[in-house]
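A brief tutorial aside. Many learners find it easier to grasp structure tokens once they have seen a single protein encoded end to end. The record that follows does exactly this for S8 family serine peptidase. Read the sequence first, then the structure, and try to relate runs of similar tokens to stretches of the chain.
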Amino acid sequence: MSAIAAAAVVATGLTATTVAAQAAPQADPVPAAEKIKPELTKALQGKTATDFWVRFAERADLSQAAKIADWNQRGTAVAAALRKTAAESQAKVRAELDGMHLKYEAFWGSNAIKVSGGSVGHVQKLAAFTEVEGLYAPVQYQAPKVTAGTSGHTTMAVEWGIANINADDVWSTYGVKGAGITIANIDTGVQYDHPSLVNQYRGKKADGTFDHNYNWFNAAGTCAAAPCDTNGHGTHTMGTMAGSDGGANQIGVAPDVKWIAANGCCPSDAALITSGQWMLEPTNLAGQNPDASKRPNIINNSWGSQSPSNDPFMEDIALAWEASGIFGMWANGNSGALGCQSSGSPGSRIINYSAGNYDINNNISNSSGRGVGQDGEIKPNISAPGTNVRSAIPGSGYANFSGTSMASPHVAGAIALLWSAAPSLVGNIPATKALLDNTATDKESSQCGGTADDNNVFGEGRLDALALLNAAPIGDTGTLTGKVTNAATGAGIAGATVTVTGPTERQLTTGADGTYSTLVNAGDYNLAVSAFGYKSTTGTAAVTANATTTKDFALTAAPLVNVGGTVTDGSGHGWPLYAKVTVEGPGGVFDYTTPTNGRYTLQVPSNASYTIKVESQIPGYETVSKPLVVGAGNATLNVAVPVRGDSCLTAPGYVNGSDGVYETFESGVAPAGWTVVDNTVPASGQVWTFNNPGNRANLTGAGGKFAIIDSDKYGSGGKQNSSLVSPKVDLTAVTAPVIKFAQDFNYLGGEKANVELSIDGGTTWETVLTQATADVRGVKEIAIPQAAGKAEVQVRFHYFDGSYDWWWQVDNVLIGSKVICQPVNGGLVTGHVTDTNTGGAINGAVVSSGDKPAETATTVATPADTGLADGFYWLFSSVTGPHPFTAKAGSYTSKTSVVDVEADWTTPASFALDAGRLSVTPGSVEATLRMPTGKTTKSFTVTNTGKAPVDVEFGEVEGDVEILGADGSRKTREQIEQSDGAPLQRLQVPTSFANKLAGKMPVPAAKPGISADPWTGISNYPATVMDNRTVNLDGKVYSIAGGNGSASTANNYVYDPAAKTWTAIAPLPGARNAVTAGAVGGRIIVSGGWGASGPDAATWSYDPAANAWTAVKANPAPRAAAGQAVLGGKLYSIGGCTTAACTPMSNTVVRYDPASDTWETLANYPAAVAFVACGAVGDAVVCTGGNNGTAGQKTGASYDPSSNTWTPIADAPADNWAASVATGGGKLLVVGGVQGAAVTNAGFAYDAAANTWSSLPNANTPRYRGGAACGFYKVGGSSGGFTATADSEVLPGFEDCADAAADVSWLTIDQKALTLAPGAKVVVKATMTAAVDQPGKYTAGISIKENTPYSVANVGVTMNVNPPTTWGKLLGTVTGINCQGLSVAIPGATVQVDSWAMSFTFTTDAEGGYAYWLDRRNNPLTIIAAKDGWKPQVRQSSVNVNTPTTEDFVLKPVKC
């Protein structure tokens, strides 16, 4: 911590809140199981590992940060406090994760750690730490999908959104354009050299060069050196905040700001968190030297959840931003079409300021997220231009987009203007929010509740930048602060209103502790204070410049009385309504009615006047406000709520009606009685339509479908003259008829949109509306008194003189005087659906009418109504009397009850659903066994404790392995994969893809390199060999055929990992090399390969029990050096050589089925290659590399047997051919071969699930054209040319060679699938067999798939494996005494161990050490230690099974 940071922390008390860490997990007040969130539990089902978040309870105390006046010190202090808290609270868990050898990323901006690839056991262990608050599954966020807008025919110098919020008036009135303010976005990136953004980029230096340090954070990993935008969204939002090219493209609100950016949106939740953290303390491009002084003032966040949410994601970051003085601006989401609960997080959170989206006519967009956010918070906070907004896009272009993503940057830019003009406000987030709220232009909307001043559609209203600056404290300022308390108790009163009048006007709301504070111009002020339940009071204050004036108030409580009543339907049915009843004003007192009777009760202060607002929770009803005057006693207010005239089809039990005709065009075709006339001569066919051929949004202000004549869609050269004609309407009983309709007439020039009237059935017409000069949007009403009392009234919408213009949309046409919602027969049914096992609510259950199946409802949670349980539903039933109703929910047994539905009333009907429920005891099993024959059976019991049968399927889930080395070390598979291995070797030697040596290709045997874990040498192959094919069958490794480089062989051998010996088996019927081989159904199938005359079709099957080969069906497309894989009990042969010289290579793919002894030709491989690396991974055959006759390849493909298709996969890290290849751990493993024109020992692994490659440890020996098998065994191969070798080695940790992806080779279970009746149980026996290759700890899981609504964790299985009783450790070092008499380690020395049975060749590591398991049955041993330049030593030795055998060698130089 710097001195400044330390001083700031001490001076301001920015400390970590103390949460004492308990030593014993049981002291944790929150049970560990409850910390594991359901989403994470679900993610772990059926998986061995997943990523997850560990969130810590401890928080830094940042409450005093705002008191630090210095911008740099404030930011540094906040970052230091956050770092300190994270370091202290995370220490124990990080140590535990290190011990688990798990990858993780620790954060300090949010006190959390993201763990990669953790198991159920890891999660459970971490949950036991008291400092851990919870463990969560990752969450996916993304930049909202914006709607492409329509580009204007001309460019507006100042875009409509800029003018709409009066930003251009701010420029001219105040001369302010944002100078001195740094703005940022967390988005998809920014084109930094865009003509409208390059001059505002903070990274542009005076000399025109660029410095991207501290100005760009590459969170997505796509653009390391400089900002870029691979999407376009981020460039567009930045353009709206800051863009201007100095000419015709004035697209930004604050074009004099400087900007920086992070592309954290949205590859992952971690990228977003990291971006938010970086904004607190930006770093250079290398991620070093953080500097809080370079943090931005404002950050725009045009991203969020893709569905309505109040998820607290990034809450810690947002709080830290505010403490640091950064204003975070947020989009409110684009799910508005879902209605009044459509705000998206993080914008929906209380602490976040979010924007809604309106259009050029100031109408809210249908897509704009709306409705209460967290804990009933009004959302959005404010609205801004967001529809058809033109801004910058990558490629130095411009485009029109729509969405709250476009609205939010308008607000961010306005804040930049405000802070630039009023520097005293910089970093004062509460004061800035208050100014935004109080200066917004009110826009009333009752759709989702609220008032004209503040509602859940527009928030506080429309953004007005000029009013914002007019109200700002520009000049001499001071702080006015105080506290409002209860006069009787002294407690602070939250939510009190403090109205300030004087040189600056403010309306403030007290915080949770009753305090208020604001920055105002110096002068004298009058203050009025009110709070619900208290008597109001007033006071005065004199504020002086650069000082703080304190004014406190104590309020006296007023006596309370009860207000109660009933809320009912007011449009004909009269049934009780489920509604929210609120006392409008600061108190916010509310109650929800009881759904079955409509009753509510409130308490309010006596002797006062109130407005009671009623918001139906059943859609389609008006929001009603009623005045109420109460005296000293209780009062009653009954309210009948009418259906909204525009929502007759939304409100249950109503249909559209009118006293004339009302049409909404929802059918998508011409409505009954309506006609379309083509007036062009000859007819053009370019007429009114109802299916929206141009895919336009409904811009009329209505919703749903509409009628349109789309001149733009008809294109250049077209002509339109068409009428949309209504049916004849009887208005004999209507005294004041009108034509009322919603429209969007998008005018270009010359076209006309008239409304014409006939009162004589179409004989004569008169024009009652002419539109021919400008755009018109919204609702239009035309009085037609001449039609009163007429029986044959018609209206037509006449569009003419159209030719490649825009369009005319018409919707919701009324010909009459009013829209009437007409009730239909029926009643409401309401109730709950619960779980009989738990008594808890079931959300998402579907309740339907048996006699009217289309009448359904889905149960929901009711978090806002604490008096109503979750699992609530209501539905309208069009049939009354006794009728069956059924409740269904996933994994529950459906239940049907007869409900006596009362007409025009609410009938209660609740359902309790049965389900099975499993308990598992114990939750894990463990055993200790000895290789290779150890075997034991453990059991666990699964009981159905529920009330319905359960279908249960058991499966095996691969876990991890921890290998015990001869030196006592232990390594997990992940550690093995991440090891470096031996030093990289690249042998620049001749190579060939021909069948054998022809002529001279002298390649000396490669000198041994330095060996290193984790690759370990095994017994040398009994002969030098290359082009052998190796398979793993029943834990033993079989090497089939091959050759010595000059001739093929028929000899085969099997390696026993427990005995560490090779044994000859029956030879092939004919000599072969580079065959296709695989273990299928307990036998080894061998086909193709080079015979005497080239690739040979003969195919044989080997029976290990009989040690005999049998001829089977010949290969229809024989190849040598083909890729091979076994999947689904069938052997695949992919590509390969077609001649003895190999070329031309083939792309043919064939498959052999031993069960039917048949071959099948499949879809060709995408390339003609030989020596391609293939294997079965999951349900697919995956291949990479190969040689096409010219060069090695790095491309690859995956084969799907179900569709017989190949799909490209990610390119390998290097071109490769003739590598050693196997599968293990769910990956394709590739090591050695020819990579980049050199024989190498480098390796890499392909993860099919992620379509990514990762490094494998370098092998000890560089070889190509060798054999390999699951295990991961590498046998023989050539060090160049046709120089065959005998050395072999193994990469431990990949022993699971089960045929099916869901099997674990060392584990079997006796149950697969069954049905458990309620109360029934089953004992499952798990048998573990230590027939594995290496000692150590093996873990797996037994999955329990069931059809219940509850999650069941995998049963953990642990097998601890000890080495065989015949194994002992041979270890030691090889050192030398050099010519100076000094002792030195000799790395890369050869240690050859010869016995009566086998030979082993090892090489020493970087310290000259070696350590290996050997079987005592090889005793006695002759050990030779040698290295070029040193005199070899030979000695006799024996391994001891009880104590390690140490043989150290000290060599002398050959000469000095």
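Self-check: The first helix runs from residue 3 to 12. If you spotted this yourself, you are ready for the next section.
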